[in-house]
Structure formats: C-alpha cells, structure tokens
Specification:
five-stranded mixed beta sheet; about 170 residues; single chain; about 30% helix; alpha+beta; 5 helices; Aminopeptidase
C-alpha cells in the first residue's frame, strides 16, 4: 500500500536522490547541480526563512520511497493564485500502480485548498506516456506558448552583476 506524506527536513537527501533519478529518466543525468544543503535551505528553512518549494513523498509499506512531487505557488496576473508542479517522479520499479496519479491528486488538493485556480507543469515533448496520461486527467497542452529562460552567466549579465558579485 502506498501512502503520501509531506516531506520533512530529514528527507532532503532522499529528495536529492529522487531528483537525480528524474534527471536520469529525462536523459540529463549530469544536469543536477542543487545540493542537499540548498534543498534544506529552500524547502525547510529555519524560523523566519522563506520557503521556496514544498515536497510530498510516496512511500510503500516499510518506508521505501516510490516517488515524489515538488511544487510551489505562483501568481497568474490574469487568473490569480496558481500552483506550479516542478517535478513529478515515480521510480521505475513502482510505475503502473497509480502512484503518479496519487501524487498529482494530492498536489491538486493542496492547490484547491489554497484557492488556486490553475495547476500547471511542463513535460518534455518526447515523453509521450506522460503526455497521454496527463490528457486523461483533463490537462491541456499549451502548444502556442514557448518557455524562455536565462541562467548562469546570462542571468548574472541581465542582472548587471559580474560573476564574483552574484553570490
């Protein structure tokens, strides 16, 4: 039986392990640069610190983690409160058991409880099984939108900061 629970501080290492599993699945095993210390700082801050994300974990009997969802609030200037699902991942040996759906349902329930009107996420265009699964849940692909990003040196340059000033 699978249970879904909120992640705790002591789960930071496990979350990093799951993020690395997701990166492998997404064909980018060397892309993960976040550290356990950063996950602790940003997801489980000390008193008074800003929380940048939340995580829920799927666990099997005996406590083995089978998957996770990492999400954070955002704001739509057209619609109001929204929730962004950054990552949803189920370990390969646990797929096909409804764990991904259970994680997504829990994130949706949290979003509704917080009066969000939109839950959104991104999916790689080659991930056909995920795309088809999401469509069965009523998700709509936004074909007309393109994601844009600046990162690393480009981000620092845009901010008018030299690399040494950025930290």
């Amino acid at each position: 039986m699978t249970t879904i629970r909120e992640a705790r501080r002591e789960d930071a290492g496990l979350i990093l392990e799951l993020v690395r599993g997701l990166a492998e699945y997404e064909r980018a095993p060397d892309a993960v640069q976040v550290t356990e210390a950063e996950l602790l700082r940003d997801g489980f801050p000390e008193a008074g610190g800003q929380r940048y994300f939340e995580t829920i974990l799927a666990e099997e009997e005996g406590g083995e983690a089978s998957g996770f969802a990492l999400f954070h609030p955002v704001y739509s200037t057209w619609r109001g409160r929204a929730m962004h699902l950054e990552d949803l991942f189920v370990r390969p040996q646990f797929r096909g058991r409804g764990i991904g759906r259970a994680l997504l349902e829990k994130v949706a329930a949290i979003a509704v409880e917080r009066e969000c009107v939109i839950l959104f996420w991104h999916v790689l265009d080659w991930n056909t099984p995920a795309i088809e699964f999401y469509k069965t849940l009523g998700a709509e692909p936004l074909e007309e939108w393109r994601r844009m990003r600046v990162r690393d040196e480009a981000l620092r340059a845009l901010a008018g900061k030299a690399p040494s000033e950025a930290k």
